[in-house]
Amino acid sequence: MKKSLLSCVLLLFIIGSAVAQQMRVSGKVTSNSSGNAVEGISVTVKGAKTGTATSATGDYIISVNKGATLLFSGLGFASQEIKVTGPVLDVVLQVTVGDIGEVVVVGYGTQKKASLTGSLVTLNNAALNRRQVTSTSQTLQGLAPGVTVQQQSGRPGADGASIVIRGQGSISGSNAPLIIVDGLAVGSLDQIDPNAIESITLLKDAASTSIYGNRASGGVVLVKTKRASEKGLKLSYNSFVSKQSATAIPDRVSAIDHMTLSNIAEQNRTGNPNASVFPQVLIDRYKTTPANNLDIIDTDWLKEVLTNNGMLQNHNVQLSTSTDKINLFSSFTYMKQQGLIQNSSFEKYDVRLNPEFKVNSKLTLVGIFGYNTNTTINPSTGLQNL
Prior knowledge:
This protein is an alpha+beta fold. It contains six helices and 22 strands. It has four domains: 26-93, Carboxypeptidase-like, regulatory domain (Immunoglobulin-like, Sandwich), CATH 2.60.40; 103-225, Ferric Hydroxamate Uptake Protein, Chain A, domain 1 (Beta Complex); 233-245 and 308-377, F-actin capping protein, beta subunit (Aspartate Aminotransferase, domain 1, Alpha-Beta Complex), CATH 3.90.1150.210; 255-296, no CATH class. It has helices at residues 2-21, 125-128, 209-212, 255-270, 280-288, 301-305, and strands at residues 22-31, 42-45, 51-53, 59-65, 69-74, 77-83, 91-93, 103-106, 109-112, 120-124, 148-151, 161-164, 178-181, 184-186, 197-203, 220-225, 232-243, 311-322, 326-338, 345-358, 364-366, 369-377. The N and C termini lie far apart (128 Å).
């Protein structure tokens, strides 16, 4: 009887000691970039099989031994190991950017870059804003390997570039890629202001046709616009002013030099020292009579045509705010481009509004609103009966 009682006391002491060594740890996991709670983060005890995951509000509860180390890991975040020092442990995870574990947009969802077998190029906002251009399509030039980007014209409002991702697949048909902006197909990449773009992904292989059909035979350009991410109110302003000028214009000779050199060329051609194209009397008259554009012509037509200043100005204002329930991103852009010849200019207004309303933990309403208007002025190139 005494042995049985002693065994029971010893067993209770062992169980009590084991329970006393364990503690209940709870906390919340948030993102360092947005400050929002992160759902689905794995919380495991290092060296053990015990684990749990964060809820939709980023909260977790786990029982561990005193002095244990918790491992926090999740898709798109850098893993962290933290030693338990108390019953409450809040964690801020760092977002991973630019490595092989980067998450990229592929059609209807996202996928890790390391496990992606398709050929693609991803450009973030920092890469796009390195160059100050008038059209979004020009930002891809030189940044996307294997993608041909050619500017079509220098005329204001028509200087957008053609994009060829998978080479020339048709002689008469279009080789242009399919442009998808926030899940919606658009006609041109230049409809989107580059300041409002968060990232651009170019799907270069034929696998994209399995998602988008034969319209993607020339490749796909996926554009993701910005959304509010940082807590509080953020206001930013970006502008640039530049001046365009004509290049590769040859030096012009005067009318007198033109006639004199033409006569020398004719004498060299014929071997006759008296040969001429223009009579010496006409040359002497040009030397003594100022040009009047009637019978004495000496007009520099390039100088007369290229009289506009070629000034370009672009101004962008962005306002974003983020709370637990509402995220709002807004962008306004004004651009004015003067051509090199008179009566040539391009003026554009671009407004974008991207709101998000979190109704509850399972329902979020997302909106995409964009307005773009422009005015192009060109010299008349047609004939009109007078």
